[in-house]
Design a protein that fits this description.
The protein contains 50 helices and 35 strands. The protein is α/β, with parallel strands linked by helices. The chain has 5 domains: 221 residues, Rossmann fold; 178 residues, no CATH class; 253 residues, 3-Layer(aba) Sandwich (Rossmann fold), CATH 3.40.50; 176 residues, PCRA, domain 4, CATH 1.10.486; 226 residues, Lambda Exonuclease, Chain A. The strands form 11 sheets. Strands 17-20-16-21-26-13-27 form a 7-stranded parallel sheet. This is ATP-dependent helicase/nuclease subunit A.
């Protein structure tokens, strides 16, 4: 009946009955096959019906797959009872938890007084509604008696979550509360950790006993153990004495293995200064002695971190500040509860439910509790009990797949359906693959049940499936070597013990009886810029180029083969055998570009940003001007787009830039839409003069386009008033033939699908409580601001190309060959001011005015990081690292036959200690750890998965000494038993990649056709033909000089072409060309060519990168506070790093924040702060200058040159306009006059542009240059 034959390990999971079972199924262990087989046996042997089982899965796709597998098994069975199950399969409960909850609601809605005529709200619509509710609430607070309270709380959380302020904090609290069975009670209990009576000892508080003590005790015990180990092997007598003193101080912190309840002792004994300095080094000190001295310093640093995290506050400070923090938090909780009530009411008024409502309403049905308050409702108790019993009787077994991804509410809801006397739970999952904590999944639920079920006195059963039927031994052994050193309870939230280790059981036997060979795991490390001849290499692009070349080698080399499961033979590698996995989508654009250059077919899964698609941006621009045509930017975007064609000639697409300039010059004042209307009046299409070509522009063609634009716009604006939004969008497609047009572009089918998706979104939107074009545009903008997306349906795996996806996207999939790239992508650093851990609570800062505490102190606000905040930050850091470990596990275990891991490092030779050497030194610290699992501090110090791999592999004897200039420290593996694993580590640079590519076959020859040439037998040309050919060949274009100049110039590229001959010329805006700067190319060039894009680097901290980041800080600073402080600039810097707008923490660390603050202390800076509403920053402009004025080889007939640039900022006051520009050039104060002279031409251009933009006399514009390096105005 089935080819599946359960193993001895799988058999209990299929056959055991009579109790709850939790199956811990490692990757590739046949979890789905076991689930299906258990279902079949419950039907076949236990004679249950399929609708007597409740099967809950994590995704709709998984549920669909489960249903299909069961159907196939039922179809193949000759048993009549099994045949009957086929008809029942359609009503079987095989679904996601949300779908099951919705079934309960539709069945029992009347028990909770719910209107069954509801609709599920979309995420974007939900965000709009929540924003509207919050806005209304704030208005009520500000106009009512809660105004002072609101302002106090809002001031305390001004930074909030990711800079969103109080609104962001409340939304985060609401999100976490929704994952709890009792959201209102959970919010109320957030105050527990802030309870402290006047005379109460810190060690008697709930916060210390329930939170601090368990965590700090575990970390201090581990540290004590490390100290004892060092003491036992210390070779220096004085060091041994010092270590003995250290141990005496640490041991007094424990009584019978428990941390003492003496707060003052804990504070004093964990201070780093209480531990003496190391004995002095001598010339006779051995390498081992020096290493042991460094080890003690490292232990002291760990102790210092523990002190700062848990014991940095004195008892006096606790009692002084915690009551104030409690008062603030109490009001915050009240605001959150009010928000939940108001939001719930708003949904009810609109007959809406969100996904969390599905779970909470279902929970209310089963418990008889109120949805919002969780109160037991006496009137509902009898009904709820009856429903529970009915369902418990109906479902003889409750099967939960991917149990590690459930949350507390979902678990409690399933428990309501469970009665040990009537039915049982069968839960399957793998905590090592729990990667959805950001969606409120709680992997500790799995661990709690697993540990409880394993206890001897527990009637339930925990089973382990560790046999791996997916991967070759090279994959399983590599994974084991990494994770048995990396994952334990301390950092990974679980122990990677023998029950967790993978055991390779897959069969790789060829048809001829031989076994398919396992290939080495490859680690390729791309090293940039270690060769002085190669400048400006881009780390990630270089790595992608390396990966593309390595894949091209695999595809082209006939010796590179894999095992074919169907034919049981070795065959050539095909593109769809390969998947590229990465932590993020950061490399996707480079992959598409680099792989295209090598003719490698690739399918990228997951649209990075739907709204950035050109076709969507164009249609959204048209919708914006239908709503309001007086918007220049979207109007110009439409005019330049293919939406505008001539009825008489559809090949004429859009307005040209000269045509748009002519329209504006005809009516220079006002909005661009007014200029278009004026042009239509001045040049009517049906009454045009005979000669309509002026200055090379056909005014009749322009008039036709203007008429087409206005006709289309008027028609669509009328449609917007009379028809639905979806009909309007379809009318746009119909009137412009835009669907057909994009279908002929590269990627046409996807572009058409994007436009259809916009139409469908508009149709769905109109079914919501929000109506109209304006609201829809706001709705889309809201999604963009929140980095949300319409997205597309997940694509099926490509059959003819390489698949590219994130690690999250690969969950549940497997591939013959896995490339795991960008492994040194940095872990995210959590810099949120407010942190929430569902079980521990909330951590926050307290903003206090010190003048309120002491009258003699100035009225200055001080921000205190509360102990609750530091403790929860440490918890979240460990949880995040555990999640990253599980992501790494998922990534490694997707591979069936080959695993190739890549990373890249910037390793400039100018750096005294290059990044690669620094990574090497970090990984070499692994040899100091003598236990199998690396110590917590070392694992937490790692910044990437690449660091973890380096730490775990460094101790393996096969790890090579890849740097000739550094020796690998000798490490005695001893009793660690890391295991046999075959891997290689190779350093790759640009030169080696080029060498690899040179040895590739010419992949670009495929598909090319040869052009036929004139042969010897062609007849001779006639005299007329010969004359015509000579005329063609001797033709000289009359405006050749114009073709040798650029029609578009950036101010930054032509500033050197201007020199100022007279100060009066500058004041009058006259600029004189320096002839020496005019090049043959007809463009003003720098002395060096621009670095090609593929060689640029986002990671290298170049002056250009620093300059860009500095300008970004100046642009984003909030000037409304009347001052700019260092802490404000520092916070903004951290925020921009987190958002990825500043490319890396390394760039952020090198920014001169003091110089930014200093700018606002100058007279100009003070004037800016005094008039923040009159300051404009980062102002883009374009202006036409006569070509003859810029290039000596042009005449007035050759037309103008468009010059564009961005003005750093200007201030408009009654006295005039002050233009300012920041420069980050590295100069000394003595060179300041030369700096002004260098940029004088650029400033003059800016002033000229500004005078035109503001319609202001040039004499009223003052230009200032600020040197960031010298912190001085010039």
């Amino acid at each position: 009946m089935s080819s599946f034959k359960p193993s001895a390990e799988q058999q209990p999971a299929i056959e055991h009955r009579g109790h709850d079972i939790l199956v811990s199924a490692s990757a590739g262990s046949g979890k789905t096959a076991v689930l299906v087989e258990r279902v079949i046996q419950l039907l076949e042997k236990d004679r249950l019906n399929i609708d007597q089982l409740l099967m809950v899965t994590f995704t709709k796709e998984a549920a669909k797959n489960m249903r299909e597998r069961i159907r196939k098994r039922l179809m193949a069975s000759p048993d009549q009872h099994m045949k009957e199950q086929i008809s029942r399969l359609a009503v079987a409960n095989i679904s996601t938890i949300h779908s099951f909850c919705e079934q309960l609601i539709k069945r029992y809605y009347y028990t909770i007084d719910l209107d069954p005529n509801y609709r599920l709200v979309t995420d974007a619509e939900q965000n709009l509604l929540m924003d509207q509710v919050w806005h209304d609430l704030v208005n009520d607070w500000l106009t009512g008696d809660q105004k002072a309270t609101y302002l106090r709380v809002a001031d305390n959380f001004a930074q909030g979550v990711k800079g969103e302020g109080l609104a962001g904090v409340v939304r985060k609290m609401d999100q976490e509360a929704n994952a709890q069975p009792d959201p209102n009670g959970w919010l109320t209990h957030l105050i527990d950790n802030y309870e402290l009576d006047d005379q109460q000892a810190i060690t008697d508080t709930h916060f210390y006993q329930a939170v601090v003590k368990p965590i700090a005790q575990a970390q201090l015990l581990e540290l004590l153990n490390q100290w004892q180990n060092l003491s036992q092997v210390a070779e220096n007598d004085k060091l041994r004495e010092r270590l003995a003193e250290d141990l005496s101080k640490l041991e007094q912190l424990f009584i019978n293995g428990e941390l003492v309840d003496d707060w003052d002792l804990l504070v004093a004994a964990t201070e780093k200064k209480s531990f003496g300095i190391n004995p002095k080094k001598t010339k006779d000190s051995t390498d081992i002695e020096l290493a042991q001295l460094n080890q003690r310093n490292a232990l002291k640093s760990q102790l210092d971190e523990i002190h700062k995290t848990y014991f940095s506050w004195s008892s006096q400070r606790y009692h002084a500040l915690l009551p104030n923090a409690k008062a603030i938090l109490k009001e915050l909780v009240s605001f959150s509860q009010q928000f939940r009530q108001r939001y719930q009411r708003a949904k009810q008024q609109r007959h809406l439910l969100d996904f969390s409502d599905l779970e909470h309403y279902a929970y209310a049905i089963l418990t008889g509790r109120a949805v919002l308050t969780n109160e037991l409702l006496a009137t509902h108790q009898a009904t709820a009990t009856q429903i529970r019993r009915e369902l418990q009787f109906q479902y003889q077994e409750i099967m939960v797949d991917e149990f590690q991804d459930t949350n507390r509410l979902q678990y409690d809801l399933l428990q309501q359906l469970h009665d040990p006397k009537r039915n049982h739970l069968f839960m399957v999952g793998d905590m090592k693959q729990s990667i959805y904590r950001f969606r409120q999944a709680d992997p500790t639920l799995f661990l709690e049940n697993y540990q409880r079920f394993r206890q001897a006195d527990d009637p339930n059963e925990a089973l382990d499936l560790s046999d791996n039927y997916r991967s070759m031994t090279n994959i399983t052994e590599f994974t084991n070597v990494v994770f048995k050193q990396l994952m334990n309870q301390g950092v990974g939230e679980m122990d990677y013990d023998q029950t967790a280790e993978l055991r390779a059981k897959a069969q790789w036997q060829l048809a001829d009886g031989q076994v398919a060979p396992a290939r080495q795991t490859e680690m390729l490390v791309y090293r940039t810029n270690h060769n002085p001849a190669i400048v400006g290499e881009d780390r990630l692009t270089g790595e992608v180029q390396m990966v593309a070349t390595r894949i091209r080698q695999l595809l082209d080399d006939e010796k590179e083969t894999i095992f074919d499961q169907d034919t049981q033979t070795m065959r050539r590698i095909k593109p769809n055998d390969i998947v590229i996995l990465s932590r993020t989508k950061a490399a996707n654009s480079q992959i598409v570009e680099q792989f295209g250059q090598l003719n490698i077919p690739v399918t990228v899964h997951g649209v990075e940003n739907y709204f950035k698609a050109t076709e969507i941006r164009i249609v959204m621009s048209l919708l914006r001007i239908i709503d309001n045509p007086y918007q220049d930017v979207p109007l110009v975007a439409v005019m330049r787009s293919p939406l505008i064609t001539l009825p008489t000639d559809e090949a004429v697409i859009g307005f040209t830039e000269p045509e748009m300039a002519i329209i504006k010059l005809n009516h220079p004042d006002g909005a661009y839409y007014e200029a278009i209307q004026q042009f239509a009046q001045d040049f009517p299409e049906d009454d045009f003069p005979g000669n309509h070509v002026r200055d090379g522009i056909d005014y009749y063609i322009v008039a036709q386009k203007v008429n087409r634009l206005l006709t289309l716009l008027n028609h669509l604006r009328a449609c917007a008033r009379q028809r639905s939004l979806a009909e309007l969008i379809w009318e746009i497609y119909d009137q412009t033939n835009y669907l057909d047009y994009v279908g002929g572009m590269p990627g046409g089918p996807q572009r058409q699908a994007n436009l259809h998706a916009l139409y469908e979104r508009a149709s769905a939107y109109e079914q919501s409580s929000f109506k109209g074009l304006y609201q829809f545009i706001r709705f889309i903008e809201q999604m963009q601001r929140k980095d949300d997306d319409l997205g597309v349906a997940p694509a099926d795996l490509a059959n003819d190309s390489i698949n590219v996806m994130t690690i999250h996207g690969s969950k549940g999939l497997q591939f013959p060959i896995v490339f795991l790239i960008d492994m040194n992508h940095q872990f995210r650093k959590d810099s949120e001011g407010v942190v929430i851990e569902p079980r521990t609570g909330i951590g926050m800062s307290l903003v206090e005015n010190v003048h309120d505490q002491a009258a003699d102190l100035p009225p200055v606000e001080v921000k205190y990081e509360l102990p609750q905040q530091t403790v929860i930050k440490e918890q979240l850091k460990r949880q995040n690292r555990a999640e990253e470990m599980r992501l790494l596990y998922v990534a490694l275990t997707r591979a069936e036959q080959r695993l190739i891991i890549t990373a890249s490092v910037n390793d400039a030779p100018t750096n005294k200690l290059g990044n690669l050497k620094r990574d090497w030194n970090f990984c070499s610290q692994a040899v100091q750890s003598k236990s199998l699992v690396l110590n917590d501090a070392l694992r937490l110090k790692a910044n990437s998965m690449f660091d973890w791999l380096g730490l775990t592999l460094f101790r393996h004897p096969q790890f090579p000494s890849i740097l000739d200039e550094l020796d690998k420290p000798v490490f005695d593996e001893g009793s660690l038993q890391l295991g046999d694993v075959d891997f290689t580590v190779q350093l790759v640079d640009q030169a080696l990649v080029r060498q690899w590519q040179a040895n590739l076959p010419d992949v670009r020859k495929a598909g090319q056709t040869q052009l036929s040439l004139f042969g010897e037998d062609q007849p001779p040309l006639s005299k007329t033909q010969s004359q015509l050919m000579q005329q063609i060949l001797r033709f000289e274009y009359p405006h050749q000089a114009a073709t040798e100049t650029t029609a578009y110039q950036a101010v930054s590229t032509i500033r050197e072409a201007f020199r100022i001959q007279d100060p009066d010329d500058v004041a009058m805006g006259r600029l004189t060309i320096d002839a020496d700067q005019v090049r043959g190319e007809g463009a003003y060039l720098k002395d060096t060519m621009a670095v090609p894009e593929f060689m640029q680097t986002n990671q290298a901290v170049t002056p250009t990168v620093l300059g860009t980041a500095t300008h970004l800080l100046f642009e984003r600073l909030d000037l409304s506070h009347g001052e700019v402080t260092f802490s404000q600039v520092s916070a903004l810097r951290d925020q921009l790093v987190d958002q990825g707008l500043i490319p890396s923490p390394a760039v952020g660390d090198q920014l001169d924040l003091t110089a930014i603050v200093a700018f606002y202390q100058t007279d100009l800076g003070q004037r800016i702060l005094a008039h923040p509403d009159q300051v404009q920053r980062e102002v883009a402009f374009s202006m036409l200058l006569p070509g003859a004025k810029l290039f000596n080889n042009l005449t007035d007939q050759d037309g103008p040159i468009l010059v564009h640039g961005i003005i750093d900022g200007y201030l408009v006051t009654d006295e005039g306009v002050e233009l300012f520009d920041y420069k980050t050039d590295q100069i000394t104060r003595t060179k300041l006059p030369q700096l002004r002279q260098r940029y004088q031409g650029q400033l003059a251009l800016y002033a000229s542009a500004l005078a035109s933009m503001l319609d202001c006399p040039l004499a009223k514009i003052k230009s200032d240059l600020y040197s960031v390096t010298c912190q001085s105005l010039v």
